[in-house]
Amino acid sequence: MGLTVTEQIIKQHLVFGTMEPGREVSIKIDQTLTQDSTGTMAYLQLEAMGIDQVKTERSVAYIDHNMLQAGFENADDHKYIQTVAAKHGVYFSKPGNGICHQVQLERFGAPGKTLLGSDSHTPTGGALGMLAIGAGGLDVAVAMGGGAYSIVMPEVVNIRLTGKLRPFVSAKDIILEVLRRLGVKGGVGRVMEYTGEGIKNLSVPERATITNMGAELGATTSLFPSDDVTKAFLKAQGREEVWREILPDADAVYALTVDINLAELTPLCAAPHSPDNVATVAETAGIKVDQVAIGSCTNGSYLDFMRAARILKGKTVHPDVSLVLSPGSKQVLTMLAENGALADLIAAGARVLEAGCGPCIGMGQAPATNAVSLRTFNRNFFGRSGTDSAQVYLVSPETAAASAITGVLTDPETLDVDLTIAEPAEFAAADNLIVPPSANPTEVEVVRGPNIKPFPLGVALTGDVVENVLIKVEDNITTDHIMPSNAALLPYRSNIPHLANFCLVPCDPDFPARAKEQNGGCIIAGDNYGQGSSREHAALVPLYLGVRFVLAKSFARIHKANLINSGIIPLTFADPADYDRLGPLERLTIADAPTQLASGNLVTVQTDSGTIEAKLDVTDKELAMLLCGGKINWLKANL
Asked: Of 34, 318, 413, 454, which sees the most CB atoms within 10 A?
């Protein structure tokens, strides 16, 4: 039986386990990336483990999230990351160099390699034929220290593309179609592997749009084969030497095949407030638009901006529309400046932001009250834009540019513009904003500002666990709900005590005070709890507030791993109907918790009105971590 591309890469990196879906496997990690929103905590954890020099082939620290210097906090965090990177063997990408996923794709990614990143959109690297996975900062710190990364062996789903996209239909519409069909939980426990004749007409940046937004499926990762298209991109980046062909075996077996004829796709949009709330632009057209944002790690490539510039050339943005641009990298911004496309965009009325995440993660450009914002980003979760009442639609650059001119949501297929634009034979590859690690690491002084506080550690599990229900939340609660990530809070990513005052506030403003008053407790949740970002703050802050366990209908993959790393027990209802029986401040008891957790996957929970059964779906190693009170405690005890 042949192997998929996913299985080939896992087999080549397998350290422990058997490649059977549902079984734990541990793999060697070749590359890591961090960004400044999650990176400070990751490097504090790396230091806590006593690692002198990273053991990976290449580790890179990016500054791309927190770049509004309204106070000293962000600048202090950046200085800490730069100095700790210099000391421990990590490359440092300065502010303005670009978004981690785009720059990693351009300058460091390589087919067949494994990449672990402390950002949920790390799967962007799958566009090069990498196994690129998002994870919590602690898992990335362990990988930097040479430790293997453990996952449950995923199923591999074949997304088979045939045909060719029509003009004005783009890669963004492909991934929106996948989300329309499978939903935000459709990728849980799976890798999405793209095959078929249709992929030959998709450039690496277009493939990156698809693998990037595959994170919204809940997938472990997404990837394409490494083929002649991959080779051409790497040659244009001046890195052809890292290319190697990686194709699925002719007799590779997939758990599921989803067929999509690209020629049948039309422009799509995701309506508020979920990436899988997908409709055609034609049937949604006419909605008045207040803001348009083009860019991000999903659609911040050269081709994306060239198409937008072609549509906007000689036109003027509608008087009622604010158009903002956030290029994916300095490379893209430089090329647009050199060929005149940037001048066309500016002349049309676009506002140009620096190459970074910006409005995608709520760092500036919050829409007006009740505004409609069209964004080429990957998430439109409630409140993520910084304005709770805003209606955010996810669209392609073509749809965004067309709508910026008309002032209403507009189907770009109604335009009369030639969008035939070739990928460049040579990109403006300049690495002058990437600082290599110090050649004399012992001489480097790590600089810590006053905003950097110690992170909390869990405690070993003993005796009965008796906790009050602090809050009961619904389905699809995101990490933006659990630990908001707006412009006011991002500067405090290294200050857990301060962040604790905002935990779950979008769900209940009284939650932080209640958690402190009750000296901790537990959380009851619906399906897909912890959807979205990889930020482990959504576990560390509840840990700081004394949360001992979460009882949910189901968990998002990365958040569940972060809870385990923090020593918070992730339980699921054996009978989902029991969710309706529980209410706030009800007392729940897990008698003799260590014995129950170790004896099997069923746990009896005593409630005020009787008993219910819960499941603990963890590996043997994860169980050991929970019993120790988290991954760092387990590492100290076992290494």
From this structure: 34
